[in-house]
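FORM 12-B: Structure-to-Sequence Request
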């Protein structure tokens, strides 16, 4: 295989025991199912597409910076604020989407709270026109549920993990 093609085809994720993958998959499915159930019961639009990838990183890659609670909450907050502000200023959805996704990315990178699924919130908002209060409440509740489930389920076997990751100072002390 040509070296350039090989670089594009190389996998960088380490191999894991199939039981760890089964646990991650089951936890993700359970979390999304619970959010869907709560959405059906409450009538709130809790089941938003970006929450699927959020669940994936929380349960499948909990050691990733993108899976940490600060990144999740701050990322969605930044995405929601940008979308709400932009909707009140720019009437054309195409340009609004372009500007918002770029702005969300810039702010998340600058604040070191990158959570890629949160960059989809402006796109979701512009296509669905969810009001600001509902969007804030829904995303906060869904993220709270996902992070809480992550904190609980990662303590179960197989491969018990610390989630969220400890502070750097805590790691240095131990």
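FORM 12-B RESPONSE
SEQUENCE OUT:
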């Amino acid at each position: 295989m040509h070296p350039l093609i090989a670089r594009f085809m190389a996998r960088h994720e380490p191999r894991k025991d199939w039981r760890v993958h089964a646990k991650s998959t089951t936890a993700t499915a359970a979390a999304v199912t619970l959010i869907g159930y709560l959405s059906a019961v409450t009538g709130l639009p809790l089941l938003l597409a970006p929450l699927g990838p959020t669940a994936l990183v929380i349960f499948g890659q909990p050691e990733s910076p993108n899976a940490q609670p600060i990144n999740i909450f701050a990322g969605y907050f930044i995405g929601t604020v940008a979308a709400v502000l932009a909707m009140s200023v720019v009437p054309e959805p195409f340009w609004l989407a372009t500007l918002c996704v770029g702005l969300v990315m810039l702010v998340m990178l600058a604040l070191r709270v990158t959570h890629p699924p949160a960059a989809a919130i402006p796109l979701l908002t512009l296509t669905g026109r969810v009001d600001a209060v509902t969007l804030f409440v829904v995303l906060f509740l869904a993220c709270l549920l996902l992070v809480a489930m992550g904190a609980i389920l990662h303590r179960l076997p197989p491969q018990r993990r610390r989630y969220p990751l400890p502070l750097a100072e805590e790691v240095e002390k131990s």
